[in-house]
Amino acid sequence: MSVPPECAARAEAAYLGLALGDALGATVEFMTPREIRAQFKVHRDIKGGGWLKLKPGQVTDDTTMALALGEAILADGGRVEPLSCARAFDAWMRAKPVDIGNTVRRNLIAFRKTGSPVAPPSEHDAGNGALMRVLPVALATLGQDEAAVRAAVEAQAHVTHHNPDSDAACLFLALTVQDALAGAPLRHLYRRRIAPFVAAYPAFAYRTRRRENPSGWVVETLQAVLQALLDTGSFEDCLIDVVNRGGDADTTGAIAGMLAGALYGREALPARWLRALDPAMREACRTQARALLPA
After folding, report:
1. Contacts of 18 by beta carbon, 8 Å cutoff, 6+ apart
2. Cα 245 → chain centroid
3. SS3 label, residue 246
4. What span, in angstroms and rounded, lies between the C-alpha atoms of 108 and 41?
5. CA proximity to 271, closest of 219, 220, 235
């Protein structure tokens, strides 16, 4: 499959969007919307800080786990192999990341003990940890049929999150990003992906009320992201909307960023945010995005 230059540029924008949303949202992670308004009025700049006391432009586990996954996929020639994913995540955890989710930690410790790269199915593992890192799979499987995308999505997800809600969200996000990479406008994404997904999985219905202070539950995460995506008209507005909802803001920012980046393209990314992003991370996202695409 030959990837057009515009698609490759959108892939780069999606990966940079993930990192930008992560860095922007980390400042207000675990704050409520009221607390954000009191401190910032509107939080709109990458400035570090937050509960993790990050340096300006620093990212969290959302971006670094995605990059670890992408390296594993590249080492396997574009395939998504469960054991390679598990080893990559384990090495990432051993390197003492700035943050790590409880479900990720627990199931990676279990992998160390058992050697099995597939966590047992659990109704309690419906967090957003597999969703936030799914972008490398979307890029590596571009052009493949839905069954192949599903298998690849679940291969990485089940290392830490073996749960049907997580699986459904991860497949939806990968397919939606792929459509956006191909140049599909937002109305097309709504008709082809968003509306059918919510019809099939009504727990994810996002129009019942405004999702403020979203938790790490994958349902609340995706509800906040979809509201922000559909109620705004630019990359910047989408990310500002979603992170100012507080809660798990680095992850909602990262997921909204990959979607909006693929949708709006490289030129839509704010120059001030790109300048603020850690330079090494900026280059890693650019390089890996293009390397993961099919030759």
Report:
1. 62, 63, 66, 135, 254, 255, 257, 258, 261, 285
2. 17
3. coil
4. 39
5. 235
**3-state SS class at 144:** coil
The closest alpha carbon to 146, from 138, 135, 155, belongs to 138
- Check if the beta carbon of residue 175 is closer than 8 Å to that of residue 162: no
Q: 69, 142 in Cβ contact below 8 A?
A: no
What lies within 8 Å, CB to CB, of 109 at 6+ separation is none
> Which residues, in sequence order, are bridge partners of residue 49?
54
Digitized pLDDT (tens) for each residue of the chain, 295 residues in all:
689 999 999 999 999 999 999 999 999 999 999 999 999 999 999 999 999 999 999 999 999 999 999 999 999 999 999 999 999 999 999 999 999 999 999 999 999 999 999 999 999 999 999 999 999 999 999 999 999 999 999 999 999 999 999 999 999 999 999 999 999 999 999 999 999 999 999 999 999 899 999 999 999 999 999 999 999 999 999 999 999 999 999 999 999 999 999 999 999 999 999 999 999 999 999 999 999 999 8
Contacts of range 177-180, beta carbons closer than 8 Å, 24 or more positions apart: 177/14, 177/135, 177/138, 177/258, 177/259, 177/262, 178/138, 178/141, 178/142, 178/149, 180/10, 180/14, 180/259, 180/262, 180/263
For residues 32 and 35, what is the distance between their CA atoms, to the nearest angstrom? Answer: 5
**Type and span of the H or E element at 145:** none
CA distances from 191 to 43, 125, 248 (A): 31, 29, 28
Q: Residue 69, Cβ neighbours under 10 Å: how many?
A: 27
Q: Domains in the chain, please, with CATH?
A: 5-292 (1.10.4080.10)
